């Protein structure tokens, strides 16, 4: 079950905010009135005597005491509100859970996602209220696929109106092959990988899309030579693929991604943490 962090954070902000507001306009006034009543009851005491009178001090403490839920709400509301605003409109952190973007992103990478570069959206509802930039080919984007509630991260391959064709493990956009250069061959070692199961070899390539270079890999097998795909990206949609092409579900499987399901643009790796009991590493820190 996926945890809806934005919704939980919103409910926490709303709850602590309501308690803080009610305390300010109602309960705080009642406490002040109670304190004034205590002071009136002990009006015969001088200020020096009040400081030493245990009954007076106890009465003042009781009258001014805030319920624990009020104290907690007032303490946490500013911090929760700040985190909510930053995550909703500026930057949101994510951890990479799968190998779909290997070698660009590895399992355990912690990334930061720019939430405003593609436009300002309302939290929870994801309704865009301000246009800023459109996604570009080669961007690494976080989104919700159609009919999915989980976050996905893939690379933008096709823009609205583009004709995307994949033939013999080669990518064509609007009839032009995307340039790539061979980097190395890698023999798969994980039995759970498709390439291992079919006895293939990973071809590691440097691919260039609209001047942006990135490393990707394909599984080269005799059976993949004749496979083909072709489609035109509808208006308001985007064609997405992982850099680990044959171990990544992409728009050929889950369909084109509607503009309203975009979350943001991944732009930096800020930490790597393989397992809970392992030591976090900063060796992979850098831009995406």
Automatic annotation (TrEMBL):
What cellular-component terms does GO give this entry? membrane
**Localization (cell):** Membrane
The transmembrane segments are: 6-27
Short name of any one Pfam family annotated for the protein:
Peptidase_S26
Q: Where along the chain is the active site annotated? A: 100, 154
Membrane topology term reads: Multi-pass membrane protein
One GO biological process term: signal peptide processing
Question: What keywords were assigned to this record?
Answer: Hydrolase, Membrane, Protease, Transmembrane, Transmembrane helix
- Domain Peptidase S26 per the UniProt entry, residue ranges: 71-270
- InterPro entries in alphabetical order: LexA/Signal_pep-like_sf, Pept_S26A_signal_pept_1, Pept_S26A_signal_pept_1_CS, Pept_S26A_signal_pept_1_Lys-AS, Pept_S26A_signal_pept_1_Ser-AS, Peptidase_S26
Note the superkingdom of the native organism: Bacteria
Q: Name one GO molecular function term.
A: serine-type endopeptidase activity
Q: From the UniProt record, list the reaction(s) this protein catalyses.
A: Cleavage of hydrophobic, N-terminal signal or leader sequences from secreted and periplasmic proteins
Q: What is its EC number?
A: 3.4.21.89
Similarity comment text for this entry: Belongs to the peptidase S26 family.
What PANTHER family does the entry give? Answer: CHLOROPLAST PROCESSING PEPTIDASE (PTHR43390:SF1), SIGNAL PEPTIDASE I (PTHR43390)
What protein am I looking at?
Signal peptidase I
What is the protein's species of origin? Saccharophagus degradans
Taxonomic lineage per UniProt? Bacteria, Pseudomonadati, Pseudomonadota, Gammaproteobacteria, Cellvibrionales
Q: Which gene encodes it?
A: lepB
């Amino acid at each position: 079950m996926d945890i809806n962090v934005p919704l939980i954070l919103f409910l926490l902000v709303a709850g602590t905010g309501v308690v803080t507001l009610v305390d300010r306009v109602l309960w705080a006034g009642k406490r002040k009135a109670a304190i004034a009543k205590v002071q009136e009851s002990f009006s015969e005491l001088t200020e020096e005597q009040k400081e030493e009178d245990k009954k007076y001090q106890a009465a003042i403490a009781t009258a001014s005491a805030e319920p624990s839920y009020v104290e907690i709400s007032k303490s946490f509301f500013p911090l929760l509100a700040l985190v909510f605003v930053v995550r909703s409109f500026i930057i949101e952190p994510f951890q990479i859970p799968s190998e779909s973007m290997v070698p660009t992103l590895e399992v355990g990478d912690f990334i930061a996602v720019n939430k405003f570069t593609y436009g300002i959206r309302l939290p929870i509802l994801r309704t865009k209220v301000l246009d800023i930039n459109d996604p570009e080919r080669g961007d690494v984007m976080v989104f919700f696929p159609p009919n999915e509630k989980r976050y996905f991260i893939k690379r933008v391959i096709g823009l609205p109106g583009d004709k995307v064709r994949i033939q013999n493990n080669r990518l064509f956009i609007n009839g032009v092959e995307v340039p790539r250069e061979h980097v190395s061959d890698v023999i798969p070692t994980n039995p759970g990988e498709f390439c291992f199961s079919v006895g293939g070899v990973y071809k590691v390539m440097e691919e260039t899309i609209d001047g942006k270079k990135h490393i990707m890999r394909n599984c080269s097998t005799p059976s993949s030579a004749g496979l083909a795909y072709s489609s035109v990206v509808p208006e308001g949609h985007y064609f997405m693929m992982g850099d680990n092409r044959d171990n990544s579900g992409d728009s050929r499987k889950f369909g084109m991604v509607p503009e309203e399901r975009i979350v943001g643009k991944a732009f930096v790796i800020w930490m790597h943490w393989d397992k809970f009991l392992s030591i976090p590493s900063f060796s992979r820190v850098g831009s995406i």
